[in-house]
User: What shape does this take?
Amino acid sequence: MFRFGIRLMMVVMFAGIGSLNAYGSLVSYLFIGDTGYTAEGVDMDYIDIYDNDMGSKTADIYGGLIGTVGSSFSSTVNLYDECIVEHIRAEDSSMVNIFDGSLATLTSHDFSRVNIFGGVFDDYDVLASVYSFDYSHVTISGGTFADDLKASENSIITICGTDFSIDGLSVGYGPITTASGILAGTLANGELMSNNFYISDDAGIFLVPEPGTVFLLGLGGLALIRKRKFAAGRS
Assistant: This one.
């Protein structure tokens, strides 16, 4: 786990501020309720991005050492390179996009949506690298995951890639029909995965092709339709 030094206990509320560029900040808790927030190199224990008006609040975070990043109430959080985050918590129909960074664990719930395009979920002896529950939806197309993938309580984890196998046996696209096992494959961005997974309480993990494969399958289907129409026209 990360070790945070003693920080000045402050709660900062931002209203009408477009961005904050702080390096080595001593802020312990940062609550954001503004549109177009940007943080670069901010060190703090907690960032909470919220939107009480149910509009569109967005926070872009570049770098920094952060204990917890929380998103709620339809806000959007984008995490980029050089972020070091202990815990990401998505809830209340918010959205989190992870493009890069070093992370420990993600929990998603309350109809939130998470898109993981990259980043490294390091081994920090946590419950799981990704834990979805309570009708949330996580889509994984990149990244590396040191710990488990867990889906429960009507949530969905969608994994985009190719060459999937469970416990060493090749599997096709669609829902995983076993409750647990070791899932391996190549993610859409080319990164390899091999992780324990667990499914419970009406949740699901779905395997889908990466976009290039979808395009090729679409071309194949189109060619088949044309062939059938040509054959029907000659009969």
About this structure: The radius of gyration is 20 Å. Residues 11-234 form one domain. Residues 211-234 form the longest helix (24 residues). Residues 42 and 64 are 5 Å apart (CA to CA).
